[in-house]
Model the fold of this input.
Amino acid sequence: MPRINSWGNTSSDEHKVLDLESRELAQNILNQETNGIVFGMARSYGDVCINQNGSLWRSKKLNKLISFDEKLGILECESGMTLKSIQDHIIPKGWMLPVSPGTQFISVGGAIANDIHGKNHHQAGTFGNHITEILLLRSNSDSILCGPNKNKDWFEATIGGIGLTGIILSCKIQLKKVNGGWLEAESIPFKGIDKFFELTNYSDAEWEYTAAWIDCLHRNDIRGIFERGKHISTNKKFKSYQFKIPITLPFSIVNKFTLSIFNPIYFFFKTIFSGKKIIHYTKFLHPLDNILNWNRMYGPRGFYQFQCVIPYDSSKRTIEEMLGLIAGLKMGSFLAVIKTFSNFKPIGLLSFSEPGVTFAMDFPNQGNKTRILFNKLEKIVLNSGGKIYLAKDMLMAKETFEASYDSIDDFINFRDPHISSQMSKRLLGD
Done:
């Protein structure tokens, strides 16, 4: 059996892997296998898409574009289709996915199961806000067609349902109209968390995309680069380029020594070259996609990501406390991104987004030292009234999950008895 790991590369376990090549085969697999989970592009950082000593049902071959209404901007596709393949097809026709996360290399099914978000939550909400229909396959041989106005309970359980309600076969997505794949973007250096909030409040109405990088090693003087962008029409031609890390490096090049050098240099150069520019959406929304297999930079032990959302009223104090803890332990992160969630009502019972500030950080896996850090960060978030993103999690305690996701009891009623994952075993006890 092949060894499979998630994007964080913190574990490598044997799995029985079966390909979902058709609806009929998917139904047979779902009926016969009693301990499996759909496995897409393996871009989830934690254990939501792995299943130690169980089965993985690979969806890569469920990748067909079923229909595309160019007038209304409604696209129907199978769940294994990637966001990149959709964007490549629709952007030349004047449409775009309304929500896209930090990478395009994820499947539509994964985007639904994790109810992903992007840099435009303040204007567009989450991916689930734009799904109009889902075809869901169950182990009792039933197929359920659900949406905002049909079988709404199943729709709400499946959006953000971390793949546990059944196999998502296909869906319909309402796209947004654009004039191409280019953005007017602006980068603004800032100091102090108050300045971040000021820039956010000022930008949200006019700029579709907003987010900020923070130098989390600066304990007493928070500084960062605020990025904002909006769609424009231009005749510029785009030339893509990609670098590839061919092998997993023997050690992590992301550590306290390299970060103490890199973070100040990054802030310095981003400050020098700040201001407005015209940039392709891939470079603005998905900068790490240009570095194939970038997760290999963290070496054989991999890395963990910690992403949380914090209510507005406690966000400043909580972020300062988290950054103080990280800097004090000298366990900095290069990827430290902060952005805001608006009042868009989340669709799913287990959706992550809620009004507040979301903060994401990558940390090299240093064993128990990292676990201690995450445990402390987890307590800070819980005390603030926040919660941790399931798509990125691998270490959250079951008690924290139960305390922060208050719709668990309702969600359990929609679980498929033949589906389980490493995450469901850890957090739901099955």
User: Anything to note?
Assistant: Residues 256-272 form the longest helix (17 residues). The CA atoms of residues 402 and 408 lie 7 Å apart.
